[in-house]
Amino acid sequence: MTWRRLHLFMVCTLGLSSLVVLYLGRKPLCIDSRVVERIDRVSPQGVESAWRCSLNRDTGFSPFLSRHLTLWEPRIKEVEENLGRLRGFQKPLRIVILSERPWAYHLSEGLLFIGERMLASRGHLERAFVKAWLRENDKDLPAPDLIEESQADLLQKIVSNSLALEDGGRGLRMRFKARWPQVMKDAEAYCASPWKASEHYEPCEKNPAALGDLAWRLSLRPLVSAALISAWKEQSLADRLRMLSALPQWLGSVSGAEISRSEGTVGPSASSRAVRDVIRLVSRRSLLVGGERTVSFAGSFSGHLRDAGFREEQPELNLDVLVVSEDGIKNPRSLVKNLSLLAGGEKNLRIAVKDPENLWVLPNQRRLPWRELEGLKAERIAVLRCGNLDFDFDWVLSFEGLAQRLFVVDACGSGNPPDLNPWVKNGAEAFAAANKGVHFIQFHLPSLALRGKELKGRSAVLPVIERHDVNDPVLRTLGWQDLRRSEESDAWHPRAFVDAIEWFRVN
User: Fold this and answer.
1) Distance CA 93, CA 135 (A)
2) What's the CA gap between 444 and 428, in Å, rounded?
3) What percentage of the chain carries pLDDT values higher than 90?
């Protein structure tokens, strides 16, 4: 009996000794990284930590970190090693995981705050290393802004061979099909896109409107990033290697903050200016660093933006047709939907619809807050007025420089909203034939501008043309000789030396 007790005691002692040896000799919970100094997870239960393995710091056991470190290490090592080949990181990075803020994401100097769902979403952890490296090599860069986001997209594509950032909340992946101006989004639509900046997931969940005009600029990210990546792919392997070797010098040659002029501007004008900022930055850096190969890259980048519809020399939003409702559109969905079919048709017309507060750029049926006509240009503008055509020549001439033709319609006089599709496709005579009883006047603005001085301050337009008197002093100024009525369309077409008024139907 005594022997059995002694044997049991020896076995227990040996077992305990083994556990002590294993505990003392165990590898502490750590992250195998050259850049990450420490990872903390903050939860209501406290703080769980893991240090860089080379620091050999002992920590308490963390079930969460123990499960996830083996998943994070390969992702971290790949991106930090590839970036390190370009230039090593200057400062260590500490990662703080926030269990109660799932969509948090904030990168400051040497410190990343990230929510657990952001951490689990593909690509966002790697992006923090890309942005940290960029900020070390491109000082004073506004962040997050279009310049930083598009540069980070290109660099992440290079070092990870992928740019498949995931919106973990919606299960969406990024797509590269974007055209100007349809790519523009307001804050609400920007927040619904997987192209929103990692830093904006949490603000988008709480209050998208708080992003304001920043959403306008960042909504252009798929347009700019796709052009940068396409330009990169077109370079030869030898040129890519040379450009990569000069990348830190290229980034440091001209500050992004020095170039960026879009900060403080609002709405769509901020969007087009932000794209031009990126073009200027890429061009200036390419002239200073890298020689012919980077100049070729800059030219290719601008070319891809042109292919996507953006014209640097035309900062306005250029359209084929702009429909303006002065009194607000009573049924915007119907009008927008009908015209969207034309915008997406064979002619690929650039069409937009505007009321006093908003703009719809078709064929996307997305509403953008846009109050002013400033920044808009179109070949033809249709103005929908309700109940009257009471305006003077000064009002008509205010559209000079915005359009070639101005089509003014009494949109309420006939009781039914007019069908604008015939006008968009075939002009004023076709509109008149399809919309019997609707009053309208179409002006050719460059011709009217030839008599602008003579018409300035003159009488209202409607009483002059209602009389059909070609001897009226105003109509003589326009060179009217006679009037011709189209039986098919029930509309009038003046024969004149100056084709300022092309078609009309009034009382």
Assistant:
1) 13
2) 12
3) 31
Helix (H, G, I), strand (E, B) or coil at 493: strand
Q: Is the peptide bond before 203 cis (omega within 30 degrees of 0)?
A: no
Q: Mean pLDDT throughout 283-301? A: 75
| Dihedral (CA of 307, 310, 313, 319) sign | positive
- Could you state, in order of their start, the residue ranges of all structural domains in the chain? 26-137, 139-315, 317-505
Tokens of 25: 């000799």
Task: Check: CB of residue 297 under 8 Å from CB of residue 243.
Answer: yes
Res 118: pLDDT: 93
CA 110 – CA 96 distance, rounded (Å):
11
Instruction: Give the tens place of pLDDT for each residue, 61-93.
Output: 888 888 888 888 999 999 999 999 989 999 999
Contact of 154 with 229, CB cutoff 8 Å? yes
List the Cα angle 80/102/121 in 5-degree steps. 45
Q: What strands, in cross-sheet order, belong to the sheet with 376-385? A: 367-369, 358-361, 351-354, 317-325, 376-385, 405-410, 440-444, 501-505, 491-496, 480-486
List the beta bridge partners of residue 503: 442
Per-residue pLDDT tens digits for 376-425:
889 999 999 887 788 899 999 999 989 999 999 998 765 567 889 999 99
Contacts of 416-423 spanning 24+ positions with Cβ under 8 A: 417/330, 417/331, 417/334, 417/335, 418/384, 419/338, 420/323, 420/335, 420/338, 420/339, 420/382, 421/338, 421/339, 421/342, 423/382
Nearest to 383 by CA among 325, 453, 338, 435: 325
- H/E segment holding residue 24: helix 2-25
In the chain, the amino acid numbered 287 is L
- Which strands make up the sheet holding 93-98, listed edge to edge? 30-31, 46-52, 36-43, 93-98, 111-115, 105-108
> pLDDT category, 18, cuts 50, 70, 90?
very low
Long-range contacts, 113-119 (Cβ 8 Å, 24+): 115/201, 115/202, 117/168, 117/169, 118/168, 118/198, 118/201, 119/72
Q: Identify the pLDDT of residue 256.
A: 63
How far is C-alpha 215 from the geometric centre of its chain's CA atoms?
7
DSSP 169-215: TTTEE------TTTT---HHHHHTSTTS-GGGHHHHHH-GGGGTTHH
**End-to-end Cα distance, the chain:** 123
Q: Are 421 and 427 in contact (CB under 8 A)?
A: no
**What phi and psi values does residue 485 have, to the nearest 5 degrees?**
-105, 130
Quote the tokens at residue 48. Answer: 């769980």
Per DSSP, what are the bridge partners of residue 38? 51, 94
- Predicted local confidence at residue 3, as pLDDT: 59
Report which of residues 25 and 507 the model is more confident about. Answer: 507
Check if the beta carbon of residue 48 is closer than 8 Å to that of residue 40: yes
Q: What is the largest CA-CA distance in the chain?
A: 136
